[in-house]
Design brief:
Number of helices: 10
CATH architecture of the largest domain: 3-Layer(aba) Sandwich
CATH topology of the largest domain: Aminopeptidase
CATH class of the largest domain: Alpha Beta
Low-confidence stretches: 1-54, 56-66
Shape: globular
Strand content: 25-35%
Distance between the termini: 77 Å
Length: 445
């Protein structure tokens, strides 16, 4: 709506003031008392407002009662720095905080944009994945990919519904403690799932450890899964849910697991980073997955190093550390076990498991062994790192007696060999992992 060639929006405040936006000249005014303050450079007497807008027009605008646009990251997992807003374009960047170098995680909320189409332009590199941003319209409970067609360079556009109140955008499909609690609630009365405390973080948060399967008496086998050594790598969390679903399911596989296996899972190794919305990767002075050699600085890593050798009791057969890679490129868009140069004996044992996984998989996300066979390293090095110090979890855990192999598994953020990675497809891959776990463990008997 316009008056005298100027476009206005009005909002009555709880103190009786009116906030006036002049879109045409990109100025804002506060009507307070008998003054109208336009920015810092213009003061008009309130009585002159009638020269531009009639009292009847003001009453009409007050009935519209618009809500002001807000963009923030003030919730678990939130991460954004808003630089400026010009018209319908928002300039922003990911918050790198204590990250060494560049990384790509972001997660923000938009309110007060109902009926508008906004463009979000990133100013620090291109942190948008190959399927565009993930979008949630229910407060982060469920997510969907906006799609590559909404992306142009380092920006994306979004048309907000007329009734949109809270829309969230994220690099991937965010997974927080609240999501884990929703999952655990489904199994609250299940005697084959136990939730315990591994430790408390530097900020006093509880780091959970989950036990699933045979929890009464001694199991024949133990397996350890860790997730979120790097806080932002959320898609791996849905894979963990899938593994747990398979162990607890009323199926032949589920019954076998509950008779023979105790699985321990640590869903948030970097719990503070997950909830604070940190990158986590390349955290200074080093991140959680570079903290296993010598004196560890993170409480969760110290607790893992103390607990796991005692819990194992010679029955820990293997451990998988679940990660997500980069956001685009051949080896970042495929399910990958990048262990080939991390020790010849470990790789040979892992290969047995990977061939079984390739054989039993049935879900939409397909693991291709050839990708892991052709992979050398993220930096292109072909040096065998068998003698390197055990700085990472996967290198450290194989020092525990009885462990047959350990491995990192990289779950792509958005695209796995042409298939969309979503909460549902990632859980289905977790089911495939569980089937391979059973087949491998049975082969040891």
């Amino acid at each position: 709506m316009s008056a005298q060639g100027m476009t206005f929006c009005f909002m009555a405040s709880d103190r009786g003031n009116i906030l006036v936006f002049d879109d045409g000249n990109e100025r804002a005014a506060i009507v307070t008392g008998d003054l109208i303050l336009f920015g810092e450079d213009m003061v008009l007497q309130a009585r002159r407002l009638s020269e531009h807008v009639s009292q009847a027009y003001l009453r009409e605008l007050e009935e519209v009662n618009p809500v002001s646009l807000t963009i923030d990251a003030d919730y678990p997992g939130g991460n954004i720095v808003v630089e400026k807003i010009q018209g319908d374009t928002v300039y922003l960047r990911q918050d790198l905080r204590d990250t060494e170098g560049w990384w790509f995680y972001w997660n923000f909320r938009v309110r007060g944009a109902a009926g508008r189409t906004l463009k979000f332009e990133f100013t620090n590199g291109n942190p948008i994945g190959v399927r565009g941003p993930a979008v949630s319209t229910d407060g982060g409970t469920t997510w969907s990919w906006l799609g590559a067609e909404a992306v142009e360079g380092a920006s994306f556009a979004y048309a907000f519904a007329k009734d949109a109140e809270d829309v969230r955008f994220c690099l991937g499909m965010a997974y927080q403690e609240a999501d884990l609690q929703r999952f655990l609630k489904r199994y609250a009365d299940n005697p084959h799932l136990s939730v315990k405390e591994l430790c408390k973080t530097r900020k006093g948060r509880v780091v959970e450890r989950l036990h699933a399967g045979k929890l009464d008496g001694q199991p024949r086998h133990r397996v350890l899964l860790t997730v979120r050594h790097h806080a932002c790598e959320m898609m791996a969390s849905y894979v963990l849910e899938g593994v747990l679903e398979a162990i607890l399911a009323d199926t032949d596989d589920g019954r076998w697991f509950r008779k023979n296996l105790e699985l321990m899972a640590i869903p948030f190794v970097d719990k503070d980073g997950v909830e604070d919305g940190d990158q986590g990767k390349n955290r200074r002075p080093h991140d959680h997955n570079r903290d296993y050699f010598g004196q560890s600085i993170y409480p969760s890593v110290r607790a893992i190093k103390d607990l796991i050798p005692k819990w194992s009791e010679g029955r820990l057969r293997f451990a998988l550390d679940m990660h997500c890679p980069g956001i685009r490129g051949k080896y970042h868009e495929t399910i990958l076990f990048p262990e080939r140069l991390e020790g010849k004996e470990n790789w040979q044992r892992l290969m047995v498991f990977l061939r079984m996984l390739e054989h039993v998989q049935a879900g939409p996300l397909v693991f291709n062994l050839e990708d892991s066979l052709s992979f050398t390293s993220w930096d292109g090095s072909t040096r065998n790192r068998d003698d390197d110090p055990p700085r990472t979890f996967s290198r450290w855990v194989r020092t525990i007696p009885g462990v047959f192999f350990s491995a990192v598994v990289e779950i792509p953020y958005a695209n796995a060999s042409g298939q969309a990675v979503t909460a549902e497809t990632a859980r289905a891959f977790g089911h495939d992992l569980a089937r391979a776990m059973r087949k491998y463990l049975e082969s040891l008997e």
